[in-house]
Amino acid sequence: MISRYSRTEMASLWEPENRYRAWLDVELLACEANAKLGLIPAKALATIRKKADFNVKRIDALEKIVKHDVIAFLTAVGENVGPESRFIHLGLTSSDVLDTSLATLLQRAADILIEDIRILLKVLKRKAQQYKNTVMIGRSHGVHAEPVTFGLKMALWYEEMDRALIRMQRAREVVSVGKVSGAVGTFANIDPFVETYVCRKLGLIPEPAATQVVQRDRHAEFMSTLALIASSLEKFSVELRHLQRTEVLEAEEFFSEGQKGSSAMPHKRNPISAENLSGLARVVRSNAFAAMENVALWHERDISHSSVERIIIPDSTILMDYMLNRFTKLIDGLFVYPKNMQRNMAISKGLFHSETVMLALVAKGITRETAYSYVQRNAMTVWKEGGDFKELLNKDKDIRAHLSSRELDKCFDLSHTLKKVDYIFKRVFKKKTR
Q1: DSSP strand pairing (335-336 vs 177-178)
Q2: pLDDT of residue 72
Q3: Do 231 and 282 fall into the same domain?
Q4: Is residue 3 predicted with pLDDT exceeding 70?
Q5: Are both 400 and 276 inside the same structural domain?
Q6: pLDDT attached to residue 244
Q7: Each residue's pLDDT tens digit, 93-126
Q8: Per the count of CB atoms within 10 A, which of 43, 220, 314, 357 is most buried?
């Protein structure tokens, strides 16, 4: 079993202590930059570095009075620093601190999610290899189509999550920007060197053009990426929920000793993890919509985005971390039932070979329309009256006029239907996980 299913890093990332610490990092780096410009005496900088600290409860108490979180923070820090605190926040506006520190927090959140995805990819690859040749019926519209393998299903999910990894890496890059350019982004009261210095130290790039804030299309892209990943997890979960239905039962969530599925019905074993993930995906998607609503702000800024982001960014990143870990655990412990897959395939009485038979007739020189009609009339008999599809085809004079019994047997050979599984696997797994 994969060891990393429960973690607290993402939740603690957004705790007030950590958030204020990120603010302080920005303020101290700005002081260092201003000192290099000769705007802060070396002795004052040394004092600031040594004494700059805060107490969350003190900030909360001050905020109740001043009704401004950054001012409350600066006041609390200043109480520790003393007179030299006049050099802190020199030429900065609140959003210089808020948006630049948010970028560092989003980077760290992205790093956690990228690791989550990589772990899931490893589990999906292992399951794909394990069930590479485990044949099951493919379904379109919920109806038996042609055979696939359970390994192919896992390979498909692997490929989709590989795209999720690329998107998450791109989203990390998009939000990795800082802004230390003053009240409306014009550097009127601060040297651009300060922004360059702060961003370089924090592993960010300066926002090429900003208002009072970093523009929120960046954050909307990040949140939309989370929504896409959540939607993929829901897609996979819905499939597993269908496969666990009693009349299907081809795969089932792990059910532990002592676990119970229903308060009323002792026999129940429900796909609770998959259902949980389907529900949470709705929350992540709705939060992405809220992030898009944040893009349009008044003039050089307003704070309508701020209240929204304080909810949706922590909630969505925490949820995404949880969802990726829960789905990884689901896949890792999944019960797979090949015998039930064989049983369900038998329900079709061989009907899923219909295309192979039709194409064999076409290869004999018959038009596709005629071949289709020959095969379909026998298939419809099986649908309505039952019986074995191959037996009916062998008795059909029009078909036997073109295909021998041996040629029909070849059409019903599963090895022919699945002969390109290796080819698909090579395409999916030839590239290294990023």
Answers
A1: unpaired
A2: 98
A3: yes
A4: no
A5: no
A6: 96
A7: 999 999 999 999 999 999 999 999 999 999 999 9
A8: 357
Nearest to 243, CA basis, from 121, 352, 148: 148
Token duo for residue 35: 């000192």
Of the three residues 317, 342, 367, the one that is the final residue of a domain is 342
Q: What distance in Å separates the CA atoms of residue 285 and residue 280, rounded to the nearest whole number? A: 9
- Please name the residues in contact with 115: beta carbons below 8 A apart, sequence gap of 6 or more: none
- Distance, CA of 37 to CA of 31 (rounded, Å): 10
Token digits of residue 335: 């019960």
Sign of CA dihedral 110, 116, 118, 124: negative
376 and 359 housed in the same domain: yes
Three-state DSSP class for 370?
Answer: helix
The model's pTM is 0.93
Alpha carbons 129 and 425: distance in angstroms, whole number: 9
The enclosing domain of 291 has a CATH number of 1.20.200.10
Question: For residue 194, is it within any domain?
Answer: yes
- Residues 363 and 226 occupy one common structural domain: no
Radius of gyration of the chain (CA): 30
CB neighbour list of residue 326: distance below 8 Å, 6 or more residues apart = 5, 273, 276, 277
At 252 the three-state DSSP class reads: strand
Which domain range does residue 400 map to? 351-411
Q: What are phi and psi of 415, to 5 degrees?
A: -60, -30
Give a yes or no: residue 102 inside a domain: yes
| CATH number for 392 | 1.10.40.30
In-domain check, residue 11: no
Check: CB of residue 320 under 8 Å from CB of residue 13.
Answer: no
In this structure, are 388 and 287 located in the same domain? no
The tally of CA atoms less than 13 A away on the side-chain side of residue 87 is 26
